[in-house]
Structure formats: C-alpha cells, structure tokens
Amino acid sequence: MSGGAAAWIGRGGLALLGAALLAVPFVLPELGYGFWVNIVTEILIWSLLAASVNLLFGYVGLLSFGQALFFGFGMYGATLAVIHWEAGFWTGLLAGTLAATAMAAVAGALAVRLTWHYFAIITVVFSLIFYFAAMSNKTLTGGDDGLSFSAPAVFDMAGVTVTLADPLAQYFSVLGVVAACYAIMGVVVRSPLGLAFAAVRENDRRARLIGIDVYRTRLVAFVLAGALAGVSGALFAFFGRYASASYMVYHVSGEAVVWAIVGGIGTLLGPLFGTALLIVFRELVSTVWENYLFAVGGLTVLVVMFAPLGLAGLWRGALGRLTAPRAAPAEAPADPVAPSADARAVPGGR
Amino acid sequence: MSDVVLALAINGLVWGLIIALIALGLSIIFGLLDIINVAHGDLFMVGTVGGLAVTVATGSFWLALVLVPVLGFVLGLVLERVVIRPTIRQAALTIVTTFGLSMMLQEAVRATYGAQPRRMAPPIEGTVPLFGIDYDVYRIAAALFAALALAGFFLFLQRTKLGTWIRAVRHDPETATALGIPVARICGITFALGTAMAALGGVIAAPITTVEFRTGVDILPFCFMAVVIGGLGNLQGTVAAAVLLAVMEGVVTSVSDPTVARIVSLAVMSGVLLFRPHGLFAGATR
Q: Does domain A4-330 have CATH number 1.10.3470?
C-alpha cells in the first residue's frame, strides 16, 4: 500500500493499456475498423521517436530538434541490411539500431558540449547536413524517392517461415519491440543513472559538485535517445518496407518534439499518449478537411498555451483531485534528489 | 569559368542582403524575447505570397512593397499578443508554439492561394552588362532595397526613442521596467518589426524566387546560420554573416552543386557553434 490510491490507479491503467494493445488486432477488424490496426502500429512506432526527444528534454533537460537524423540512420541501417545482406527483421533491426547509436555517439560527443538554444540549433544543423547528403547521394539512399524492399522474415526456423506480410506477425513484432523499449527506459530512469539525469537537468553545477560527470551523463542520455530514435526508424522502415531521405528533414524532428510535449515531458508514457492524440486527430480531421494540418498546428499551439505540462499534466491533476485527501501525505517524503516533475503520477509511475 | 564564379558571387551578394534583412528580424526577436522563432521562414513566405497577391490585385509592385510590410507588422502584433505572450514564460516551449504557428501559416496559404508554385514578373525589366555578363536590373534593385532597409533599421535603432527603448530592454529588461519603459509593449513591437522585416524581404525576393507555401522551409535554416555565425543577438554580425555565407555558397556552387554548398555552410556553422559560440565576430563590434 506504499504508493497509495494514485499508484493503484496508475497500475490499473497500465494493465488496461496493455490489455487493450494486445486486443487491437483481434477486436478492431471485428468491429470493421481493420484500417486502424495500422494506425495503432504507426502510433507505437512514432511514439519511440517522441520518447527519444523526451529522454533528452524531459530527463536531462536538452531540447533536441534533430532526432530525425537518428531515425533516418535506423531506417537506412535496417533497409540497407535487408537489401544488401538479405537480413531478416531482427538482424535488420539490430543493424538500424547500431547505425543510429554509432551516429549518436559521434554527434553527441560534439553536441552535448553545448546546452540550451545552442544545443537545439546544433542538433538541427547535424540533421540537416545528413539530410542534404542523403538527398544528393541517390545511389546509396535513393534520395527523395527512397528505397523499397519486400517483407523480410520475422521467424525462420525448422522450415517454418513467418514474414512481416502476416498482419499479426507484424503487429506483435512491433508491439513487442516498442514495449521492450519502454520497459528498458523505465528501468533506466529509476536507476542511479536516471537519478544522475535528473540531477543534471535540475542543476548541472550542483550535479558536478556532488561528483557527477555532467558531460558523460549527457552523452549517455544522447546515445540512448539516438538508439531509441534508431529503433523507431528501423521499425518504420519495416512497417512501410521503405526508406526515404525525406524522413530526415527537421520537420520530422519538430513533430516528435510536439508529440513529446503534448504528451507531457519527463513522464515515461506521456510521449505515447501525445503521439496517439495527434496522429488520431490527424487521421480523423484529414478525412473531413483537406487542410487538416492547420488544425494540427492549432491544436499544438492550444496545448502549449493551456496545458503546458501536456496530457500527463492533465492526468496528474485529475488524479490529484480524485485521490488528494488520502494519497497526498503518503507521497510527500520522496527521494530528495527526485525531480519535481517526474514520472510519479503517470500510469506506470511509482 | 571566372564569369560564372563572378555571376554566382554577385547572386550570392544579392541573396545575402535579402537574407540579412530576414535574419535580422529573426535576430532581434531572439535577442529581445529569447525565443527561437521557427515560424520566421513562413512569415517570409507570407511576404512573397502577399507581394504577388497585392501586385496582381492592384497592378503595382511598388504599392505591395509598402503595403505588405505594414500588414506584416500588424500580423506580428496580433501573433505576439495571441500566441507568443501567453507562452513566453516557458522559453523552450516557444519553439513548439512557433512550430505549430508555422504549420498553420503554411496550411492557411495552401488553402487560400493554392499549392501551385508560381513565378512573378520582375517590376523592372531588362539587363545591364556587369563584368562581362548580362545581369538582371531587378536583382540589383532588390539588393539596393534590402541595403536601404537594413540601413534604415540601424538608423531607427540608434537614433529614435523607440529604437533606444528596444536596445534598453534588450540590455536589461528589469532596469528598463524600473525606468518606466513599457517592456511588454516593446516586446510586442519588436516581434512585429521582425515580422515586418521578414515580410519586406518576402516582397523584395518574390520576383526572383518561386512563390509557394513551402518557400519558408528552405529559407529558415539559412537565416539561422546567419544569426548563429554572426553571433546570437549580434545584429551587425548577422548582416555580415548572411552576406558572407551567401557569397560563399555562390562560389562553392560554381565549382560543385548547391547541395554541397549548403553542406559546407552547415559545417562552417557547426564549427562556429562549437568553437566560437558567440559568433565569428565576437569582440569585434563590442
């Protein structure tokens, strides 16, 4: 009973979310919404890109506007592995993730020397350099038209081959990978490393004084975020059986920042809900209004104006009002280093 | 060969002066309000579209040259009041607000003006011989307009009361408040001025570029490069960097292709950010 009522509601919510996601490919087609299974898959994939923005901005305080670079490396790593080495799903995923991680290590070693606006700008600059390079190097990347490939195998053993062309195999591969990424993130942000992230975010000078290597902490976060974006890119390549340099443009990075902030930064699952809200909103509005991007932009502005803590902030507020009389005292004596806006009242939070 | 280099260098100079005007708008907004205005390129785009629309409607480019910046100023006042001011306390979030604004501006233009790229006939026809090549007269006129606007802006900033107030708020907003300067209104006016400069740059550039809802997406990185290489908040540095970059891109383009030129600029920018974070001209002007 240590967490109080709020934690129980959070755990229940998480279980409900998990059950709903497991049921998606069985229930939605039955109801005649088969098309939405793909939308849910897309949300899951893109949410990892938003999560990578969140890991940097929400947990270490560095706003990156260039995560599309690592998304692109993940995308091309996977695609080129499939095309040139006939890799399957898992090898391709690994290749994409490694490519993005390596790029993030190089870019991060330079970028995390800077903070604040300078950091935001240099991440855009790095992503633009590779965007232009990828656009012009058509033999390797296919440029704007991109490269396409046929669905690789997810499972190929004992004479049984299952490829991504099987809708269930595709959905559950994506769901499994995405869930694993969130689980790893959850472990990391609660570990001593996660506390070091929070210390650096809250006050980097004080963090340095208590013996934290600020540069290395930021670099580790940057590389982890790059790996997440890489997984997202690799999954997206498998989902579309396609990679294109156009996904490396800074607009993609910007959208990921919007999703993360709309969902609520500094919370583990906030980016998932932010991505879901905006993609579902886009899908619904685009069926009735050709200029739906106007509405998406408007929604973005309104959320920042009226709910700057995002959906997670709204949820936390509602939960606080619901359980305040009983839960508040139990929550009060928290970890002294714990950040003010951490994962506490989010589904899955402590 | 050297003719081509020269022509592209002159082209770079013309573009550099126009970009300087737009980047200066970005720079004053950044310096005073401490926000990264991602929608600035789209405000330039609104200027090009507005310039074409007013020219078509009234038949006079010169009227557009005056009217569109004034409309841009009003648009800037409204945007600052409605969108920027309520979110100014979360400085990082203004990137997101202006990103949303950028989507809205692009989509609003696409909905009303259409997605089709258009070309605008230059208001001054003809060419002049320049270092052995025939050069468009309008491009030279455009460079002059931009240079005049830049000079006018610096005069305004140095010689008028409003300009002095803007500099005072930039220097120390708290002292400025204590001295009775209406800081909130100065912020609004600064944002509007920046918008007007982007719009003016748009009208001047309309006859020498394609006019469509995506023009701002290409121009924005270039403006940021000028602002960063010139030194964030260093206004003269911004102008110098814009011209320098554009001429450099012009020269690199003559031996390679525009993409390589852009990558070279971006690499220069990374170097400046990492090793001279206060800009290439830090210490030279102050």
A: yes
